[in-house]
Please model this.
Amino acid sequence: MAGIEHIKVEEDEAGMRLDRWFKVHYPGLGFGPLQKLMRSGQVRIDGGRVKTDARVQPGQMIRIPPMDVDAKAVNSGFIPGHELKHASDHELLSRMLLHEDDKVIVLNKPPGIAVQGGSGLNRHIDQMLEAWTSKKGEKPRLVHRLDRDTSGVLVVARTRGAAQKLTAAFRERDTKKTYWALVKGVPRKHEDKISSWLVKEQTEDGDRMRIARHGEQGADHAITYYRVLETAAQTMCWLEMEPYTGRTHQLRIHALTMGHPILGDPKYFEDDHNWAFPGGMQKKLHLHARHIDIPHPDGGRLRITAPMPAHMVQSWNLLGFDMDNGRRDDEE
Model:
């Protein structure tokens, strides 16, 4: 049992409800026990008593009493900035872990961490996986990718044989990936399919996708299914998106194509002087790989759901979205 701790609220936790803050940092602590700690004054902010609906602000110090709880951020994908700089690769990967067996590892990738290396990147998931090299000298292998600013489910193979089977499952589209996004406006059709051709262009800001003509050199066909789960008036909505194909930036460009770009997207959210970014929300990409359904290399299927990152939880709270509206039939 740890002693009393004082944890500083991070910049990207601004406006988060205190009970949500605990759910992110201490997922093993139930609501009832948390209420008890509040009533007895054991949890305090800057020395003062608080209620569970209090909103935390950057720089505040939260007093944490001794607890028999598996401590910080297990499975949430949430890693405070200062810890990201100083923690070991093994520790960071352990924080991200959602599932582990002899053949497959599933991580909840936080936003801001690249999956593979690139110019100016000195830390990325592929490099970090060397910390989990087996006694046989086998390093876990990536079998698909997520954009650097996209969070959520990332599947990794432990062995070469598992990598071949998982890669084949992605190639043959025997996987079902579900993403959650917060987009500007509300699509006229609340459920639909987007089909287009995409081509990659080199720009000063790196690779960017654009809609192409059928038959244009280098163009790939891209198909996305979506449905609206909740709306915030007509200004924003929560979309569930399922990519049938897996093209670079596919969901981001398809959202833009509909006229409903994803909030906080640095590449595809075009400035609209008539539309103000909502107060209290962070200008980070609101796109999260929420769930994956994939065949396990040893048979059967693996179905994994990833908790949202802190900045999206904050936005969902501000908009009053009900998480149960996105609950899947195969979730507990």
User: Anything to note?
Assistant: Residues 183 and 262 are 4 Å apart (CA to CA).
